[in-house]
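Cross-posting from the modeling subforum.

Setting up a comparison between two proteins and wanted a second pair of eyes on the formatting. Protein 1 (sequence, then structure tokens):
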Amino acid sequence: MKIDSGTTAWMLTATALVLLMTPGLAFFYGGMTRAKSVLNMMMMSFVAIITVTIAWVLYGHSLAFSDNSMSWLNQFVGGLDHVGLQSLVDTATKSDGTGMPSLVFSAFQLTFAIITVALISGAIADRAKFGAWVLFSFIWATIVYFPVAHWVWGTGWLNTLGIEDFAGGTVVHINAGAAALALALVLGKRKGWRKEPMRPHNLTLVLLGAGLLWFGWFGFNAGSELAVDGTAGLAFMNTQIATAVAAGAWLVVEKMRDGHATSLGVASGAVAGLVAITPACGFVDPWAAMLIGLIAGAVCAFAVGLKYKIDVDDSLDVVGVHLVGGVIGAVSLGFLAAYPFLEQQNKGLFYGGGLTQLGLQVLGPVAIGGYSFIVTWVVGKIIDKVMGFRVSAEEEVTGIDITTHAETGYDLGTVHASGVASPNGPAVTPAPKKVDA
């Protein structure tokens, strides 16, 4: 089939936008940590780009998007038809009539896998061994993300049943949120949690990261239509609507509850809106996008405080924003889905549909969240037993940046107003000049 240049150009752009989200997440998470672990936090996002890319090329695309020769097994994981991606080079374009090169589709889906893994890292900030995280990212992508992507977007069992997930509310956010909860339980609480202040050290970085996520998310959501058409436009507009409303709703909750509307609140609210609209953006009307954003912003603003009630140190609120926001978005389709694009899918309850779609939209989060939580907990425990998943108490107190990476995010001790920078050490204050009598 002839390549459609318009679709291909848009999908290359969307792919780049989604990849940009992972460095954006690094800024967002990095600013939320303490200064002594900002580099480690950002490195966890960047290393996910490395490990997941390697796994994706070797077998990830194949497990997610090829058909397994054993029909019963195909309901759960794909086959090995595209190992190494050479078959995608040979087939040139997808067979679905979009005119998109198969490799472009693969690259687009790769960026989703990358950021899903990176999202998990926010729950274990300040205390995870870097080597253990590298190993975990390989294993988790292989046995959790790739099969779950097959369930929903491939030819797996949830897709066969007719679940709706336009851009990854279940595959990405519920999946990552459930894994984050499990890993936070495996590693335990940070030293001094609830006793020492652990506030974000750089809200400027947080806002920068949130802005990059917001920008890149248009590729994430609108690009998931895999075409340049009205549905892509609807997804684009709904993304903007829900995000803005959610950010505003979070600020209102903060103002009413705490007396202050904060920069962290507007950033977190925006991300909550982005998460919630992700599964629904191409299936709902704009008024529904406003409702989803309103609910997500308000509910997630309260949900981030649940970690104190259940005594789980989810360091950067991955569970409260991504798991809760993803569930809100996924379940909302059972009520608000207005544009079913596949014959086996049903409209939501508010549009004359029955309970079938609502049941599916509840089943998806339960199945994916449960699978992700259990497998992540088991993998985390095994890694912890074999090589240790958590740094020592001394390293944690000193700061992972210096103990693991031999670097610091801020070298503030080398320059002073009254001194000069020394290339080999701390600032040196010039000796006073002699004054002749």
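Protein 2 (same layout):
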Amino acid sequence: MITRRSLLAAAAAVPLGTGAPVRTARLTLPAPTGPHRIGAVTRQVAGHGRELTVSIWYPARDIRRHPVAPWLPAAPLRALLESVGLPVGVAAPLTAGHEGAPAAAGCLPAVVFSHGAGGHRSETTIVVQELASHGYVVVTVDHPFDSYGELPDGRLTVPDDDVSITPWDHAHDIRVVLDGLKHLAAGVGATIDPHRIGMFGWSKGATATALVMNTDRRVRAGLSFDGPMQSQPPVAAVDRPFMLMTAEFTEDTEDTEDTEDSGVAEFLALPHGWQLDVHVDGALHGSLCDQQWLIPQLPINADDLPGWLGTLAPAQAVRIQQAYPLAFFDQHLRGRRQRLLEGPSRAFPAVLFT
């Protein structure tokens, strides 16, 4: 099982160029494409002895006088950069979410997100704000001892390598969030439809998505971003819609001296409900989160970028991240047929249907 595949997990091995002083610069995120403005708030959720920090993203009816939320607060961003030996003179991007903005009316579908090992709840903000801009309530979760974050009192939280956090721990955290989902949404003035709840995750969080669907029928549709699909007890069959978007952890990845068995082949061999497996050609593990867009903005030698990004262009990665998750949840939570899920598209030549 992977242990640390967060936004900048491999950066310590990458040369930083000339060594010249780096001026503080603010990173950027691409804008979402949906018609709705976005609100965002951060809350604490307690359960099973673990204090969870969550963010709630939602369509907003008025964003005036509400400041935009940063991708990560300054302290955890600094800790993340320092932990991998990168200069700290970089400001987090500003998101499309406006802190505390009043929610739009309507009974809305909801999606929850689980991050990867040693990651954080903001690592797929491109996808999260895309869904919110199209009318979803999205709840993202920091998993204690496995994430970079900041508590309301200002205390910094970082991954603890001495604490074993498994995909099952992520799954248990998500079930706690599901228990309080109605209350969390109501706290920002939003109403969610309990019969239209989905989940997605990246890496370890993708494995947790399948585990939640194995144990909790409240989640009606699940999406995996390059999940290894391995855990103990193992992942079982999913009888509701489940989609895999793969990069490095594919059906063909086998356990060797240099790679881990993805577990994907065994998972796909199980009897499932509606299922789709697509491979993003040229992508690396981090290509299915914000890393693909943010890494080129960092002071890294251009010659080293292929080792970070593969051959998938960042702009194409963003379009894939915006289009396919939205199509999946629109089809299975809103009942809207999506031709994008029925076969290859000329607009997305890197997406291969397996």
